[in-house]
Amino acid sequence: MSVEDGGVPGLGHPRQARWTLMLLLSTAMYGAHAPLLALCHVDGHVPFRPSSAVLLTELTKLLLCAFSLLVGWQAWPQGTPPWRQAAPFALSALLYGASNNLVIYLQRYMDPSTYQVLSNLKIGSTALFYCLCLRHRLSARQGLALLLLMVAGACYAAGGLRDPGNTLPGPPSAAAAGPMPLHISPLGLLLLILYCLISGLSSVYTELLMKRQRLPLALQNLFLYTFGVLLNLGLHAGGGPGPGLLEGFSGWAALVVLSQALNGLLMSAVMKHGSSITRLFVVSCSLVVNAVLSAALLQLQLTATFFLATLLIGLAVRLYYGSR
Length: 324
Description:
By secondary structure, the chain is an all-alpha fold.
C-alpha cells in the first residue's frame, strides 16, 4: 500500500500493526468527541466557553510536543534550530482557525440539519486539492469511493440517530431544540462553499509542509501549535465577556480536551506518513463509533439510515483500499 493510498511503504509487520492501531485510536477519539461533549452539558447547555476548550486543546498539544522533544522521544535536528521553517506553519494555523470559526458563523444562515448534510462537500474539496497540490491522480474507483463517503456522511447527518422521545426528522440535537424548517440563505451557501474549500486546503497544505520538510514530526507540531495557541489566545481574549478560562470545566470537559489533543497529534502523524485521504476515511469511519456511543451513553436510537451509511462507508473502504 502506498503513501498516497494511506499506507506506509516499507514497514514491517510490527510497525504496520502500530500504524493500524493508531488509525483505530484516532477513529475512536473522533467518534467519542460529540458524545463526550453531550455529557458535559448542564441544563442542556455547555457550561464553558467553546474558545476555552479550543485554546486548552492547542496548549495541551504544544506541551506534549515540547515534552517529547525534551525527553528525547524524537531527536532534535543537528546544528542551528531551523526556525525559518516555522513560518509556513502560520498559514496552516490561520487556515484551521478560519475553518473552525466559519463553522460557528454558518449556523446563522442555515439550519443545523442542512449544515450537517452539505458540510460533507469538504470531502470533495479535500480530494480536489489533494490532486492539484500533491499531483496525485485518483482512479475512477477511488473517486467513486470518495463519492460514497460523501453520500454516507449526508445519510448519517440526515437521520442516522433518533431521539426515542422525539419524532422530528434530522439530528437529535436539532430535534431537541424544536422544529426548525430546512433553509439556507445565498450568503450561507457562499460561506459553506468557502468553508469546504478552506477545510480541504488546510488539510492538504499541512500535509504538503510536513512531507517536504525533513524535520522531526514533534518539531513541526511545535511550530504549528505555537501559532495555533497564539491565534486562539487572541480569539479567546477578543471574544468579549464570558466565563473564565477554566470556569465550568468538569472531568468530562478535561477528557474532551485531552482526547482532542491526542487525536490532533495522531492526525499529524497521518498527514506526515499517510495522506489527507486517509484522514477523510478516519473521520467517516468515526461516524460508526459516534453512533454506537450515542446509543449507549445518550439513549439515542440507531435508524435504518445509520446502517445504510455504515454499509456505504464499508463499501468505500473496500473500493479505495481493496485489491485493484
